[in-house]
UniProtKB/TrEMBL annotation:
Annotated source species: Paraburkholderia azotifigens
Subcellular location: Bacterial flagellum; Secreted
Keywords: Bacterial flagellum, Cell projection, Cilium, Flagellum
Keyword Iron-sulfur on entry: no
Name under which the protein is recorded: Flagellar hook-associated protein FlgL
Coiled coil: none
Any single Pfam family the record assigns to this protein: Flagellin_N
Family the entry assigns: Belongs to the bacterial flagellin family.
All copies of domain Flagellin N-terminal, residue ranges: 11-140
Length: 406
């Protein structure tokens, strides 16, 4: 095959043009630090870079969401710690109020203290986070969740919505709890049945706490009343099942079996005919911490007269302390859940940060200039171009007339 002079010159010029183009491209990579400026530079790498960029953007958003969720949960955690401190103070005052040496004035002072603490608890229930959003209002984050009506009773104005934040591609996490759950509810686990004496009782009978011997007995979920038909006999009515036992003989301090025998309770003192007592499952009793406080405050403000009055006060304090125990158990359970969510987010933050760094590294490998490699290629291409130019310069000087002349 013959190659004409024009073809030879054209091939050499094309070769040098290609080398100059390669040099220009390598120089651009060196000056900009970017090895993948356009998809044509590396189509496969460009597609991978797009995927990595999208993944990096998603990880960045998840990281931001995780920070938001963690801040919200930390605000609630701190608030619940304050609530627990207030409830502990209330418990201490109720124990003190049970001191038999106190007079009506002393108990009135404790009631006044409890009223102030109730206001403090109300302030915590209407607490806000760092952005001014109410912690316990559900979706109504701009409205105070609790208010006081004209009768002095506390009303819940929030809703039951719980805000969630997507912290990973497959995980949404709750970043709050409602005021109804925290201040108006109880935890199914760890709560105790509530015992109470009728405020109209005239005898000196007082009811103790319930003792559970068989937690799985279904009749433990029934409500009971113990009605004294005389000073020495009583009947037990299962209010839930609408059944009443035969009259039983009363002995002070002796265990009274309820329902199927899964729980029992003791009554001490000397009840009178017509006196009654009740045992209510925790979930069916009053779970409103504000209403429960109001009830015990009213009991402390009522003057005590005679053995009947002292017994009624003792029963009211026992009821209040059991209700308070259930509230504290509920708040502790919720705070434990909040702490678990905080730990989960902190663990996810570590994973997300690691994935973000790896994604950024992979993207950099695809798009950023490898200086060592590019400089080496640049130098080799430059040498090749110079050699081609020199060789072409020498060859183009050759002519048949040079040989004829000799």
């Amino acid at each position: 095959m013959r190659i004409s002079t024009s073809q030879y010159f054209g091939m050499n010029v094309q070769t040098m043009d290609d080398q100059q183009s390669t040099l220009a491209q390598l120089y651009q990579q060196l000056s900009s630090g970017v090895s993948l400026a356009t998809p044509s530079d590396n189509p496969v790498g460009a597609a991978q870079a797009v995927q990595l960029s999208m993944q990096g953007a998603a990880l960045s958003q998840y990281s931001s969401n995780q920070n938001t969720a963690l801040q919200a949960l930390q605000s609630e955690d701190g608030s619940l710690s304050s609530v627990n401190n207030v409830l502990t103070t209330i418990n201490t005052l109720l124990v003190r109020a049970g001191d038999g040496s106190l007079n009506d004035g002393d108990r009135g002072d404790i009631a006044t203290q409890l009223q102030g603490i109730r206001s403090q608890l109300m302030g915590l229930a209407n607490g806000t986070d760092g952005s001014g959003n109410y912690l316990y209002a559900g979706y109504q984050a701009s409205t105070p969740p609790f208010s006081v009506d004209p009768s002095g009773a506390v009303q819940y104005n929030g809703d039951d919505g719980i805000q969630h934040v997507q912290v990973t591609g497959t995980r949404n996490i709750a970043i709050g709890d409602t005021g109804r759950d925290v201040f108006l509810g109880i935890s199914p686990a760890g709560s105790s049945p509530v015992t109470a004496g009728n405020s109209a009782n005239t005898g000196s009978g007082t009811i103790g706490n319930v003792s559970v011997s068989n937690p799985t007995d279904p009749t433990n979920q029934d409500k009971y009343t113990i009605n004294f038909t005389s000073a020495t006999t009583y009947t037990i009515t299962d209010v839930t099942a609408s059944t009443t036992s035969a009259p039983q003989t009363y002995a002070g301090g002796q265990a009274i079996t309820l329902g199927g025998g899964g729980q029992n309770v003791t009554i001490s003192g000397a009840p009178n005919a017509g006196d009654s007592f009740s045992v209510t499952p925790a979930a069916q009793s009053s779970t409103d911490v504000f209403a429960n406080l109001d009830s015990v405050i009213a009991a402390l403000q009522t003057p005590v007269s005679g053995t009947g009055g002292q017994a009624n006060l003792t029963n009211a304090l026992g009821t209040a302390m059991t209700q308070l125990h259930n509230t504290m158990n509920n708040v502790t359970s919720i705070q434990t859940s909040v702490g678990g969510r905080e730990q989960e987010i902190e663990a996810l933050q570590t994973v997300t940060q690691t994935n973000s760094l790896q994604t950024s590294s992979n993207l950099a490998d695809l798009t950023q200039t490898d200086l060592t490699s590019v400089i080496s290629k640049y130098t080799m291409t430059q040498f090749s171009l110079q050699a081609a130019q020199q060789g072409f310069s020498m060859i183009q000087k050759l002519s048949l007339f040079d040989y004829i002349g000799n």
